[in-house]
Amino acid sequence: MQNAVQRYSFFLTKPNIISIFAHKTIYMVKNLINKVALPLMYAGVILLIALFIFDLTKYSVLLFLALIIELSGTAFYIYNLKKKSKY
Question: Would you tell me how many other CB atoms lie within 10 Å of the CB of residue 40?
Fold first, then answer.
């Protein structure tokens, strides 16, 4: 007569750390998108104003950086509006 031995898998007894980390990271990113939209837009506008005040408009990299900051802020803001909308 053989004794019935119940086998436990390592993955079933220990919490799946990767899954927990992924869920926390996704939650943190979504929370960050909610809080970052308008400050990014303001930072882009302030950067553009500073570039024009200090006459640094000949550097296209800085102008492009300000544009990217503003567009990302706008995209996050629109994402938040659509996410909160019922329609």
Answer: 19
